[in-house]
Amino acid sequence: MSFYYVYLLQSLKDDKWYTGYTSNLKKRLGEHNKGYIKSTKNRRPFELIYYESCLNEEDAIAREKYLKSGMGKRYLKNRLKRFLTG
Known about the structure:
The chain has 4 helices and 3 strands; from the N terminus they run ββαβααα. The protein is of the alpha+beta class. The protein has one domain (4-84): GIY-YIG endonuclease (3-Layer(aba) Sandwich), CATH 3.40.1440. It has a 3-stranded antiparallel sheet with strand order 2-1-3. A hairpin with a 5-residue loop joins strand 1 and strand 2 (17-22). Helix 2 crosses helix 3.
């Protein structure tokens, strides 16, 4: 059984977040930190601060889209409240 992961990275350079999805979380984090991903290349390094797993790709894509929305961002801020306040 394979999973798809929706993940949230925080840039250690500017503290901004990046949300994405992948079938190989460890490999994808490495690609972000090595500068292989065009959209995050100039914001390295990153740390993984949150992820969710899904059983199929369509669910992961839908979840990624939600987490990038206004409601999804509010959900993440509430979910990560303790992390964000130190």
